[in-house]
Amino acid sequence: MAELPHSALAAAGGLEAGSGDAQGTTVLAAARLVLQRDLTLAFRRRGQLIQPLAFFAIVTMLFPLAISPELARLREVAAGVLWVAALLASLLALEFLFRDDAYDGTLEQYALSGQPLTGLMFAKTAAHWLLTGLPLALIAPLAALSLGAPPAAIPGILASLAVGTVALSLIGSIGAALTLGIRRSGVLLALLTLPLSLPVLIFGARASELAIRGESIVAPLELLGALAVLGVTLAPLASAAAVRISLE
Amino acid sequence: MNWTWFHRFASPPHMYRLARRLTPWFAWPAAVLIVVALYGGLVLAPPDYQQGEGFRMIYVHAPTAWMSLMVYTTMAFAAAVGLIWRMKVAHAAAAACAPIGASFTFAALVTGSLYGEPMWGTWWEWDPRLTSELILFFLYLGYMGLRGAIEDTQRADRTSAVLAVVGVVNVPIIHYSVTWWNSLHQAPSVMRLGKPTLSGAMLWPLLAMLLAFTLLFVALLLVRLRAEILARERNASWLREELAA
Fold first, then answer.
1. What is the pTM of this model?
2. Quick one: what percent of chain A has pLDDT higher than 70?
3. Among candidates A61, A215, A96, which has minimal Cα distance to A150?
4. Does the predicted interface ipTM exceed a cut of 0.95?
5. By three-state DSSP, how is residue B48 classified?
6. Cβ A196–B177 below 8 Å, yes or no?
7. A246 contacts on B by Cβ (under 8 Å)
8. Tens digit of pLDDT for each residue in A137-167?
9. CA-angle at B39, arms to B38 and B41, nearest 5°
10. Is some CB atom of chain A closer than 8 A to the CB atom of B149?
11. A39-48, B49-58, B171-180: lowest mean pLDDT where?
12. Which of A119, A171, B22, B43 lies at a 20 to 30 A Cα distance from A189?
């Protein structure tokens, strides 16, 4: 606890730099500051941003080596491979979501800031999606092409991953918040998060599969959207509650 | 409204004594009813005209599968009560539920697999009900894993309670998405079990077994709850007097 004042000041400084006094700041303004702070910090450490993407690419590469290099066979499993790889990559990235902020006391300052923690958690999760979910969705078409998907499937795959990763980030934020303060939490985080993420995997893989076959992806995409909306409304509440408990 | 009856449940000594007094009232009827239902199911009930003698597996399989969901609901309810009213005993009850529920789920999976082999010709089918049951098992494991990973009891209680409540919101979604996922694939042709319309001689042992397993769950829960209270209150003075008496 000895180093807390210093880091707490830094965190408070980050919040106050753009807002003046904390009293007059609205939730939206505070959330925007948190978002800005997380993005700025992430771009100062670009190496960490690349890691989930590299992991995604490597996992995708494993399947042709393990199954068969024939594109016709790979095309059949391409949607599933993409989604399993995306799920694992987003799981890997979850470890960074709250860990550093819990370690240096920033989360404590957020909880004490007088702003609703739910809004701030939402901002943090949004930043996390912008930094991992969106890049994953952007490189997924490349991986899909390498697995034999036709170029016409690119918009569908992009859309399904862009929407699906929103839900994954939100569900993951609950798991990350619950495992705060547990040492070597990696396996436990997977055990908690993966069962809860299964609906996203099912609808996402279905949407990508339909896109590869050239059919309409509207139905599973709408269900993915519904999951994302449900996540937006409920997940920040749960992760804020979990963060508060971890600070008790 | 008078809430004292409710507050008494929050007192560990009261619950400890209540659990000890109530245990035999659930354990003995459970034991008798299991024997009766087993006799009814294995001996009295006629063999199924389609499934033969193999259908008797249902007398263990269906009640365990039903219990696996009921225990999860009970656990989440206890966890929510603990979270909202900060009742330590409710948290202890949720903690006591988890291993029982995981055992019922495991038993449902094993008996389902044994049931599937003669009926469908396969030990495992990616059928929505089997898959949801497997996922439920992992949810129990996650809950127990999270509880075990946190050393401080109060934090473990509250953190795992959040997980249990999140699970309740998610379990129906998982269940329906798995059903939806399977209906998109070709319908399994081996498995046209559906809901068998059971005749009276076949039905009453099933219902008796359901009741027996529910009583068994309550009895096990009371025993485990006592063990939880003992572990949590090990330094309390009332416990020393209780054990000395």
1. 0.85
2. 90
3. A215
4. no
5. strand
6. no
7. 155, 159
8. 999 999 999 998 999 999 999 999 999 999 9
9. 60
10. yes
11. B49-58
12. A119
Q: How far is residue A69 CA from its own chain's centroid?
A: 31
- Residue A62 near residue A81 (C-beta atoms within 8 A): no
Q: Are A202 and B178 a contacting pair at CB < 8 A?
A: yes
pLDDT digits (tens, 9 = 90+) for B26-69: 999 999 999 999 888 888 877 776 677 777 888 888 899 889 98
Domain boundaries, chain A: 4-247
d(CA B186, nearest CA chain A) in Å:
14
| A220-234, B41-55, B147-161, range with the lowest pLDDT | B41-55
Q: How far is B48 from chain A (nearest CA, A)?
A: 37
Nearest by CB to B162, from A178, A196, A223: name it. Answer: A178
Q: Would you state the torsion angle of the CA atoms of residues B150, B154, B157, B163, taken in this order, to the nearest 10 degrees?
A: -70
| Region of B194 on the Ramachandran plot (φ > 0 left; ψ -120 to 50 alpha; else beta) | left
Contact A74, A144 (CB under 8 A): no
User: What ranges do the domains of chain B cover?
Assistant: 56-188+198-244
Residues 151-170 of B with CB under 8 A from A: 154-155, 158-159, 162-163, 165-167, 169-170
* Cβ–Cβ below 8 Å for B162 and A241: yes
Nearest to A191 among B141, B177, B178 (CB): B141
**Count of CB atoms situated within 10 Å of the CB of A241:** 23
A153 burial via Cβ count (<10 Å: 0-12, 13-18, 19+): buried
pLDDT in tens, A182-213: 887 888 999 999 999 999 999 999 999 999 99
User: Strand, helix or coil at A76?
Assistant: helix
Q: Which of B154, B165, B181 sits opposite A202 (nearest CB)?
A: B181
Total Cβ atoms within 10 A of residue B180:
17
pLDDT beyond 90 at B7 = no
Q: What is the dihedral of CA A235, A238, A241, A245, to 10 degrees?
A: -120
Does B188 score more than 60 pLDDT?
A: no
Q: Which residue has the tokens 């245990």?
A: B23
pLDDT at B131: 83
Q: Which residues of A touch B154 (CB under 8 A)?
A: 248
Going by C-alpha positions, the residue among B106, B110, B104, B113 that lies closest to residue B64 is B104
Take residue A147 and report the two structure tokens written for it: 């697995």
